[in-house]
Amino acid sequence: MPDPFFPRPQIHGHRGCRGLFPENTLPAFQHAVALGIDVLELDVVVSADGQVVVSHEPWFSATICRLPTGEKIPAEQEHYYNIYQLPYAQIRQFDCGLTRHPGFPRQQNVPACKPLLREVIQSVEAQAARLGRPPLCYSIEVKTEPGGDGVFHPAPASFVPLVLAVAEEEGVAARVTLLSFDLRVLRVARPLLPALSLCLLIEGEARPLAEYVTELGFVPEVLGPDYHLLTPALSQAAHDLGMQLVPWTVNDADLMRQLIGAGITGITTDYPDLMLAVVNDRL
């Protein structure tokens, strides 16, 4: 059911505002804050020197990143540029803002590196204070899978504490939801910080929600389904368990309207400007 602190569904800026500025960069987060979103959604990986870096992939995507020389990254070589094998000082030398993602023609491109999670939080907190905005919330996705342990990322038992330490040191842990498709991440996080909000992400083949919960071993606070999976049955099952619902990634105004009327808590979108227009009845 909707969060009582929000009179309308929360607007979750996906990777900041990927449709408008380069994903997971400071310009994207700053623009999303300026627009007036409620929650920043972002992804984190880990560098060779143990820094928590904001990035969707644990490597430099050939679609959106360039080598320190300015050259494009060959698609067949992108996995060689493994963030987990590079110190952060070297990671900062790659540009991931000047190359427009082909799926987002409205994107404004500016020079940008992959920032640290700490850097993002500090920038967002300062900007919200300057604008006189209430403190924002953070949805932080931990990107892991069993086959990547020790190759592209630490195992969850090492990864999760790094993320939580940053959130606690920056004073925002009470406003963080930790997201993951990997049940191991949620299991590790629960005892480390019992009050932390956890979100189970789901995609692919539809399964009854009860199966996920049984496999996980507890009921997380939030369910984040691919919006294609959001049926009345799934919504009812989540509500029966007391879970909030935040579908992703919704970029169509008509679909936003449908979901707003379906009792969801929030919507994750690449175009927070579009959702703001929808909720303010400007479209």
From TrEMBL:
Species of provenance: Hymenobacter aquaticus
Boundaries of every GP-PDE domain copy: 9-279
PANTHER family linked to this entry: GLYCEROPHOSPHODIESTER PHOSPHODIESTERASE (PTHR46211:SF14), GLYCEROPHOSPHORYL DIESTER PHOSPHODIESTERASE (PTHR46211)
GO BP of this protein: lipid metabolic process
Protein name: Glycerophosphodiester phosphodiesterase
Pfam families: GDPD
Family matches, as SUPFAM superfamilies: PLC-like phosphodiesterases
Organism superkingdom: Bacteria
GO MF annotation: an example: phosphoric diester hydrolase activity
InterPro entries: GP_PDE_dom, PLC-like_Pdiesterase_TIM-brl
